[in-house]
Every structure is written in C-alpha cells, then in structure tokens.
Amino acid sequence: MGALLLRRLLTAIPTLAIVIILSFLLMRVAPGGPFDGERALDPATRAALMQAYGLDRPLSEQIGRYLWRLAQGDFGPSLVYRDFTVTDLVRQGLPVSLTLGGLALLLAAVLGIGAGLYAAARAGSLADRALMTTATVLTVLPTFVTGPALALLFGLRAGWLPVSGWGGPAHLVLPVVALALPVAGAVGKLTRAGLATALSQDHVRTARAMGLAPVRVLLTHALRPALVPVASYLGPAAAGLLTGAVVIETVFALPGLGRYFVQGALNRDYPLVLGVVILYAGLIILFNLIADLLYGWLDPRTRG
Amino acid sequence: MKAALILLGLIVAAALLGPLVVPFAYDSIDWDAIRAGPLTHGHLLGTDFVGRDLLARAMVGTRITLAVALAAALVALVIGVAWGAVAGWIGGRVDEAMMRVVDAAYALPFMFVVILLMVVFGRSILLVFLGIGAVEWLTMARIVRGQVMGLKQRPFVLAAEAAGAPPATIVARHILPNLAGIALAYLLLTVPQVVMIESFLSFLGLGVQEPLTSLGILVKDGADDMDVAVAPLLVPGGILIAILLCLTIAGERLRDRLA
C-alpha cells in the first residue's frame, strides 16, 4: 500500500507540471490581455501595469518566476479582482465547491448503491426493471437542465426552497440534488451489474447452498466485490462533479470556484485561471488515488 | 433499442425537414407575440422573450447541436482509432510511450482544457468541435488498442503476415474492418458526451454564439426566462434529454452485443 501511494505521488508531479505549463502557454496564446477592457487604458498606465505584474518579461522568465512562487504556496495576485490574491479567492470559493461536490457524491453513492441492492435482491421483478430504467434516464440528465427545472418546481412554484445564493443548508438542497442525479443513476446501474456478476460466482452459490439468508449473502459476500467497478467510477466522477459544479454554481448563483474560473477565463485573469486549473488537477489526481486505494481494499487480489 | 432509434430518427428528421414546414424563421421577431404561450398567435409552442418562434428555434438548435456533436465525434474517432491502432500494432516501447500520453491526458481537467481552448481560439463553431474532438478521443484510443492487441494474435492476421503482406495492408484489410463494430458503438456513446459538452459550453456563453443557436443556448434562454414562461426551458431541455437517452441506449446495447 505504501509503495503504491509513493509511486502515485511521484507520477503526480510530472502530470501537474505538464498541466501547469500547458495552461500557462495556452492562456498566453489567447488573444487579448487582462488590461484590454472595454475602456482602453492610457498606454503609459497599461505599460506600468504590465511591468508591475511582470508581464513584460520574456515568457520563460515568467514561467520560472511563477513556478518558483508556486513552490512557496503563492498563487500570485488576481489581475482583475484587484486587491485580492488568487489564494484569497480560492479560500472563499473552494469550501463552497467542496461542500457542494462532497454532498452530491455522498447522496449519489447512498441512492445508487441502495437502489442497486434493492433491484438485485428482486432481480427480474417489476421493481428491478423500473429502477434500472429510471437509472438509465438519470444518467443522461444534464445539470444545466435539471438545475433550472428543480429551481422552477420547488423554488419558484412551490416556494419551499431558495433558488439562489449561499446561506443555510436549505440553499444547498436543490444544487446538490441536481448534481447528484446523473451520478446516482450511474452508480445504481454499476452496482446492479456488479451484483449480478458476483451472485453467479461459486463462493456465493456455496453460501446460498449452505442455507444462508439471501439478504445476508447479498450484503456479506456479493456486495464488496460488486462495488469494485463503482469505486473505479467514483474517482473520475468526483472530478466530474467539480466541473459540473461550474454550471450549478452559475445557475444557483453560488460563490464557488467554478464561477471564478469562468469569469477569470473570460477576463484573461491569468493567475486566477492557472490557480484554479492547478487546484482542480490536483484534486482530480487525489480522487483517482483514493479510488485506487478503495479498489485495493474492496478487491484484495488487485493489490500489487 | 428499436424505440430509441425510431425516436432519434424522428428528432433528426424534424430538425432537418421541420424548418421547411414551420411558417416562421428561427431568428425573425414577431412583435405582436412576444412571450406568447403555446398555441397562440399561430405559434405551436409559443415564442421566446423577444418573440421568436420556439418550435423553429428548437429545430434549428437541434440541428446545430447534432451537427457539432457528430463532427466532434468523428474527429475523436479518427484520432482515437489512429492512435490506438498504431500503439496496439507496433507494441513495445512505442505502445508504452503512446499510452502514457493517454494516461496523462486523462488526468487533465477536461472541461477546463475545453474552456481554455474556447478562450484561446475565439468562438468559431468549427473550432468548438475540433477542440471537443481533440479531448474526446482518449477512451476510443484505449478500446482500439486493446482490440488490435487481441486481433494481432488471431490466425488470419498471422497467416497474412506469414504470406508477406505489408503491415499497412494488414492493418487496413484485416484489423480495421474487425474493429468497425466496437468503434461504431463507442462513436454512438461519444456523440451524447459531445452533445453534453457543447450544450454546457453554450450554456455558459463559451460555445455557439448568437444569432446562431443550439440546444444549450435555448436552455439558457429558457432558464433566464422561467419565472415568466416554462415552455422555453422545457422544450429544448426535453429534446436534449431525449437525444442523450436514445443515443446512450443504442450505444450501450450495441456495445454489450459486441463485447
């Protein structure tokens, strides 16, 4: 386990380096700069700003300086939200995005695994087929359609829940549900399929033949191996929840990271965009690592 | 699966032929019928917030969304098949290096790469789908590589090699035709993914630009206007979900049959 962890952490470094350099270069190739707003700046002011932020230096020097400061944990200043550093903005936005994504992941796992277990326990029944059809429909629901639709139904029409802003737990319900639905559908389908395979295995048949209660067989013998594909799905899915959150944060006007990213990209706020990309890449690598560790725990045979 | 394909066919037919039948252009404004409800002023589904016929807009939006998605999926198919076939066929160090690239690319935050590309290359519809295609080929490459590695060991390929056929001929004659089925299944599954990305970008204002429209833009307009009328949100949203569902069902069935 320790060796795997170390190896994965070592491969994470070059991956992150590639992400950083690629994003850095892509942003700079883009036409327009952070100070090309609607109102043209006086050339002398513009030059002074460029100099103050070091944007007049050669590109290689800029990358070098950026990486050096990054190594010390400094993401640099935001070019558009003056008076704020990127670290300030991340500190404001990240908790919102993580809460949103984390709760959605939890809800999706609980709903999906629960539905998969129920369907497998009643394999072939009407309930099984109804649940799996529902799961297929859920997997294709785009958050930017379900988000507004839920807001319309439960917010504007019924008036039960707030449709925008960041406050108490009530503000989280609709965005979390909209984010969780497609993931719940996929988890449900994977759990059901995994259980079907596991139930046809020899050791399960033996357990059944020995007279163990079907529910007990399902929970103690079949569920753990059946969750292996679920675990390997959830790593990338967690990353997907973060990206999906970009839209949900826009729809529900939540002050998360995703909104800063889109605004930053449109405004050519180089340090802000880079900071968010690096953070997301790091989180994706982390989630994939967690999924791999979970994988090893669920199926000891895969431990190298 | 049959029902899914029929529904998909109907949607495609409506998107292609519909504008010939509907008496309104997708971008012309009916000043007497701004935010008209369904079945009023001759507008079957009503109009949007500036009085444009919703049915006509939905048809044109579907057409653009599907065209962009198909083009992007084809780009992904070409890159993915080429990359996977070369890696699988040559094997060894080349394979190792090529698949490392794929692994690294998987770790990139996709949506952000796409958004960066959109920002870099401006808002040309051509580049929207090239950009999406350029990040959607990875799974295709993995599948194709696996298939090629399996096919390489099959007797008919070994026989062709023994008979002295040049590698290019073997790949073209014996390998690619045997890949076609599974590649088609994944093409079908790539299209809904691209539809999703395109709509997502258009929704955020980074994809297809006005006056051209797409399902993502229509959903966005509908969402902005939903406290007044619900049809502008539900119609394009419903079409989008129907397309995604049909393609996913057809693709999964085909994949399960071939795998």
Describe the protein in words:
The complex is a heterodimer of chains A (304) and B (259). Chain A contains twelve helices and no strands. With 304 residues, chain A is mostly helical. Chain A has a domain at 90-269: Orthogonal Bundle (MetI-like fold), CATH 1.10.3720.10. Chain A is flat. Chain B has 259 residues and is mostly helical. Helices cover 75% and strands 0% of the residues of chain B. In chain B, α1 crosses α2 (54-90) and α2 runs antiparallel to α3. Chain A binds chain B through residues 14-15, 18-19, 22-23, 26-27, 29-31, 136-137, 139-142, 144-145, 147-149, 151-152, 156, 239, 242-243, 246-247, 250-251, 261-262, 265-266, 268, 273, 276-277, 280-281, 284-285, 288, and chain B through 104, 107-112, 115-117, 119-120, 122, 192, 196, 199-200, 203-204, 206, 216, 219-220, 222-223, 226-227, 230, 233-234, 237, 240-241, 244-245, 248-249.
Q: Report Rg of chain B.
A: 22 Å
What oligomeric arrangement do these chains adopt?
heterodimer
- As a percent range, the share of strand residues of chain B is under 5%
Helix content of chain B: over 70%
CATH structural architecture of the domain at 90-269 in chain A: Orthogonal Bundle
Number of strands of chain B: 0
Describe the global form of chain A.
Answer: flat
Membrane topology (chain A): Multi-pass membrane protein
Family (chain A): Belongs to the binding-protein-dependent transport system permease family.
Domain ABC transmembrane type-1 (chain A): 94-295
Keywords (chain A): Cell membrane, Membrane, Transmembrane, Transmembrane helix, Transport
